[in-house]
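User: I'm new to structure prediction. If I give you an amino acid sequence, what do you actually give back? Let's try with this one:
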Amino acid sequence: MKVSFFCTNRYSSREALDHPEWPVPRALYEPEAGLRSLEESLEQVRLAEELGFDWISCSEHHYTPLRQTPNAVLFAAALSQVVRRPKIAVLGPLVSMNNPVRIAEEIAMLDQLTGGRLIVMFLRGTPNEFLSYGVNPDETRARTQEASLLIIRALTEAQPFGWEPAPASADLLLRQQLRVSDLRGGPPHGSRSFVLPTPSGRAGDGALPE
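Assistant: Good question. You get back a string of structure tokens that encode the predicted 3D arrangement of the chain. For your 210 residues, that looks like this:
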């Protein structure tokens, strides 16, 4: 069994946390509180490593003081330089709302920064986030499935390739494992980065495997 510490980078201001409506207005943001929140989060992961946690995880979310991680890959890069033993788990980039090729590039770079300690799971997102980014919620499941397949191919294909939009074959994601040495431009650490499937084995459900 592996134990993960989920680092939320939660904003440490009661006024913003207690705000009853979404989105929380920018007027409630205080730069000092934002910096203090980040410093507290980094201190928490240092303590989590000392306590023996196997993973340090983070997730992409938007417009909420509960999780100040609009770019989970960027936050994971910072975490990777604070802790040296635990794996860094990005759970995950919201692939329905972002460019999948850009996500693949960021994953490859983050894998190098972590020295092969990277774990990634692709997520679909939530209705409020779709609204923020102008994404049609009805399209997000298919977008998540296809983007996941494209990202995996971009990380494992040795040669340039073309991509025709097509119905995603979710079965291809079932128990997919990406060797770090297969990542283009990535160092041969001899370890693995994992793309985790959902309990049903279907891409885009947005849940950890049992």
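You can read the tokens as a compact description of the fold. Here is one thing that stands out. The chain has one domain: 4-195.
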